[in-house]
Amino acid sequence: MINYDDEARTYDASRGGEPRAEAAAAAVEPLLPRGPSTILDIACGTGIVTSRLRGPERTVVGIDRSPGMLSRAGQRLPGGVVCGDATRLPFASKGVDAVVIVWLLHLLPDPASVLAEAARVLRPGGVLITTVDKNDAHFAEDSDIAQVTADLRRQYAPRVPDDGARVLSWAAELGLELAGETVFPGIGQGRSPHGWRQAIEAGRIPWYTDAAAPDEASEAHRRLAALPDQDMARPDPLYRLIALKA
Fold it and tell me: Phi and psi of 100, rounded to 5°?
C-alpha cells in the first residue's frame, strides 16, 4: 500500500505533473454542470487537477484523507480542502452539484461504498464523474507489453475494482445513469519494460501480485525482461472517464 503522506512531495512529478493534470481537467470540464455549482473532488491528492476545475460561478472543494497530500492541495486551493474519508463524507445529503473521482476506484477494496456516498451527496440532476478501467489503460492490443502480460491480466479481470461494467451496474442500483464519457491521455505515463519490472518489484501492480501463481508470475517477469528496448517508454495510457447523472 502506498503511503501518500510520504509520497506527497514527489507525487506530481512522478505522475506526469502539470501536463497530465491539464489533460485530466480538460476531459472533466465538459462533463461538469454549467452555471453556478458546487463541485466536490474526492481523493483530490495534491489538488493539481482540482484547482483547474475552478470557475467564476463554482465552489470547488477537495477532500482527501492524507494530510501530506492536503498540505499540497491547500496551497493550490486555500480554504478549499477538507480532510476526510470517501466512505463517510462530511457533507450533507443532496448538497453538491457534481462529484469528481479521478484515479481512486482502482485502489479500493470496495468501490461500491464510495460510489454510494458520492450518490448520497449529489443533488437531483447532479453528476458523478469518475475514471474506470485504469488497469487496461496502458495496454493497446498490439503492444509487446500487452502481449506478454495478457494471461495475468485476464486472471485478474474478475477482481478489477474499477471495472467499467461493474461500476455502471452499481451506479444503476444507486439511481445513476450514464450521461457521457470520454478518454484522455496519461501524459508522460507510458512505461518501458524496465519500468514495468521496477513497478512489479515494488509491489505496485495488482494484476501481477494478486492474480498469478508464482511460476506464471515469474514467466511473465522473464518475458518482460526479454523484450527489446528495455528503457524505451511505450505509448502513454488512455484513461476512460464516465459521467453518471442522478
Answer: -115, 130
148 vs 159: CA distance, rounded Å: 20
> Angle 89-76-135 (CA atoms, 0-180°, nearest 5)?
60
Bridge partners (DSSP) listed for residue 91: none
Q: Where exactly are the structural domains of the chain?
A: 4-134+161-189+236-245
Beta strands in the chain (DSSP E): 37-42, 58-64, 81-83, 96-101, 122-132, 177-185, 238-245
CA–CA dist 40, 60 (Å, integer): 6
- Tens digit of pLDDT for each residue in 1-21? 678 788 778 877 777 789 999
CB–CB of 63/100 below 8 Å? no
Helix (H, G, I), strand (E, B) or coil at 240: strand
The C-alpha atoms of residue 153 and residue 139 are separated, in whole angstroms, by: 10
Look-up of cell digits 465552489: 59
State the Cα–Cα distance between residues 203 and 206, nearest whole angstrom.
Answer: 8
Mean pLDDT of the region 129-147: 90
pLDDT at 31 over 90: yes
CATH class of 4-134+161-189+236-245: alpha beta
pLDDT in the model for residue 1: 60
Q: Which one-letter amino acid corresponds to residue 30?
A: P
The pLDDT tens digits of the residues spanning 230-245 come to 999 999 999 999 999 9
